């Protein structure tokens, strides 16, 4: 299996992140499936911890983009990648700078991200994305949320 078309999609996905962190959700939304089983775990989701279905996911992406401005990509560390004919995933550490929530200064942000894609009508589409700020080991008690 040739992964060059998948690598091109991931490159577009990274460029779309830059657009998202500059307040433009459109390029990012185009990469996601619009089907009922698409999911997005995003801290800005108004629907709970995971948005489900094309409509909720699109709304969450739009809402998230509204919290960012002046975004700058710093890099992507690929942890793992697997590509088959119909399904693929990538685990990365995304690093970027952006102004968040109307702040006057940009901050460095690092996210641990898992993205799952599948072929839909011959094109790769994101069917799940989960991102969190855990990029280093933490104390066991940190999961207690206290």
Description:
- The chain has 3 helices and 6 strands.
- It is an alpha+beta fold and 146 residues long.
- It has one domain: Roll (Nuclear Transport Factor 2, Chain: A).
- Strand 4 and strand 5 form a beta hairpin.
Shape: globular
Number of helices: 3
What is the N-to-C succession of helices and strands?
Answer: HHEEHEEEE
Please name the CATH topology. Answer: Nuclear Transport Factor 2, Chain: A
Strand order of the largest sheet: 2-1-6-5-4-3
Number of domain units = 1
Low-confidence stretches: none
The CATH architecture term is Roll
Total count of strands: 6
- Sheet with most strands: 6 strands, mixed
Helix content: 10-25%
SS strand fraction: 35-45%
Can you give the mean pLDDT? Answer: 93
How far is the first residue's CA from the last residue's CA? 47 Å
CATH class equals Alpha Beta
Describe the structure using short key phrases.
alpha+beta; 6-stranded mixed sheet
């Amino acid at each position: 299996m040739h992964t060059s078309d998948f690598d091109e999609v991931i490159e577009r996905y990274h460029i779309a992140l830059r657009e998202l962190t500059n307040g433009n959700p459109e390029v990012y939304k185009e990469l996601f499936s619009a089907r009922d089983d698409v999911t997005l775990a995003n801290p800005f989701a108004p629907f709970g911890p995971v948005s489900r279905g094309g409509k909720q996911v699109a709304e969450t992406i739009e809402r998230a983009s509204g919290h960012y401005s002046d975004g700058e990509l710093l890099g992507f560390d690929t942890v793992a990648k697997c590509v088959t004919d119909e399904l693929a995933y990538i685990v990365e550490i995304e690093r970027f700078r952006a102004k968040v929530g109307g702040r006057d200064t940009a901050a460095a942000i690092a996210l641990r991200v898992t993205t799952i894609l599948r072929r839909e009508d011959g094109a790769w589409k994101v069917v799940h994305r989960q991102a969190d700020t855990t990029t280093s080991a933490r104390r066991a008690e940190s999961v207690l949320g206290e």
